[in-house]
Specification:
The protein is an alpha/beta fold. Helices cover about 35% and strands about 15% of the residues.
Length: about 400
């Protein structure tokens, strides 16, 4: 590990404040999908792409959009030590990002972030540790699995895998960032001369209809962030007084409940209904876990994270371009044109009427930093973006 990474680790693990410095307004901007990994690996990736400065923060001419999901990387084993390390790394990683000037680092909410103040809003460290013990028992015993009745965690698999590294400290951090308007649902930027919408898992016509707005990037960005702001105000007094309260973004984003996993804005993934068992589609239309790419709004270009290449290949079936051998860790493109859908490594023949989705979840915890490619964008807000009206 070189000196820059070592200094970044030192900064992340202490209360180092960001140094005052001049930012380069028209510098280099990148998107970073799902930074769910160990700190050492995270900083190795940033350093490989020449984003880290000698002071342990991003270089002043670098801007970054973190596309959400800062917690819950895959554990190497079920030991208490492994869980504790993942808990600490999540807090330190998100805190490090948040210490940067908001004009330099834009933070988006992912499902693993919002669940800290939704499904996990009432958990203590002790109650969640007990839920994980029960979940491990349920994994080994189908009868125990069937009897799962936890009030807020949908099923044992969610407790053991998806929410695996929860801690109260993480919830407190997410609450603080939300109250300070430091983390948001959406952003806009320019990509190859086009205004694009950035969210964790993409917007479909379902969300457009629920928001009652026009499907253009700026309007959707403002509507999503306005929704978040209004819902934060409903829990602000509780959070500021240390009282547990759920941040509810329904029906746009639906949290999970006993026996039903969450769905909608931050949970759903693109999938081919002809390729995947139809029962999985119809299981709960109120909390959709999948969406048909043909419901991506026509004429809207988006960037999202949330879904890896491996998962896309599994879900999209015949819509995967013939001969598509894109290595893991690279941006990919999902395009919908009428009834035609194509998932490919590059976007050819891209018209303004197409629904285009660039996907940047690089599977960071599994893919080597040197094999990960970051999608570069042009000056997002807050340097030229609307961000909570600031």
């Amino acid at each position: 590990m070189n000196q820059r990474c070592t200094q970044a680790l030192r900064v992340a693990r202490t209360a180092h404040l960001r140094p005052e410095r001049e930012l380069v307004e028209h510098g280099r901007w990148v998107t970073l999908g799902d930074p769910q990994t160990r700190l050492e690996r995270f900083f190795a990736l940033l350093d490989h792409h020449e984003l880290l400065g000698d002071d342990g923060f991003l270089k002043p001419d670098v801007g970054l959009v973190s596309m959400g999901d800062h917690f819950d990387y895959e554990l190497p084993d079920e030991s208490a030590e492994a869980v504790q390390q993942a808990q600490h790394h999540g807090v330190q990683l998100l805190s490090w990002l948040a210490r940067h000037d908001p004009r330099q680092v834009v933070l988006l909410l992912g499902n693993h972030d919002i669940c800290r103040v939704a499904e996990l809003a009432f958990e203590s460290d002790e109650s969640f540790a007990e839920a994980r013990i029960q979940a491990l028992a349920a994994t080994a015993d189908g009868a125990v699995h069937a009897r799962w009745t936890h009030l807020h965690i949908p099923n044992p698999d969610i407790a053991r895998r998806d929410f695996s590294a929860f801690s109260v400290a993480q919830r407190a951090l997410v609450q603080r960032l939300l109250l300070e308007k430091r983390i948001q649902l959406a952003a806009t930027a320019m990509l190859w001369g086009r205004r694009v919408l950035l969210t964790h898992a993409a917007v479909t016509t379902r969300e457009v209809e629920l928001l009652c707005v026009e499907p253009d990037a700026e309007t959707l960005c403002n509507a999503l962030n306005a929704l978040l702001c209004s819902r934060i105000e409903t829990v602000r007094s509780c959070w500021e007084e240390g009282v547990s309260a759920v941040l509810d973004l329904g029906p746009v984003h639906m949290m999970g409940i006993t026996g039903q996993e969450g769905g909608g804005l931050l949970y759903h993934r693109p999938s081919n209904p002809e390729h995947i068992d139809g029962s999985k589609w119809a299981k709960n239309s109120e909390r959709p876990r999948r969406f048909d790419p043909r419901t991506l709004p026509a004429g809207l270009t988006q960037i999202c994270a949330h879904t890896t290449h491996k998962k896309c290949v599994k879900e999209l079936g015949d819509w995967v371009a013939e001969g598509f051998k894109r290595p893991e860790g690279r941006p990919r493109c999902l395009r919908s044109r009428g009834e035609q859908v194509q998932y490919s490594p590059v976007l050819d023949d891209w018209s303004e009427e197409d629904a285009a989705l660039f996907m940047v979840d690089a599977d960071m915890h599994r893919v080597e930093p040197a094999d990960i490619e970051l999608l570069e964008i042009e000056m997002p807000v807050p340097l030229g973006l609307s961000r909570f009206g600031l």
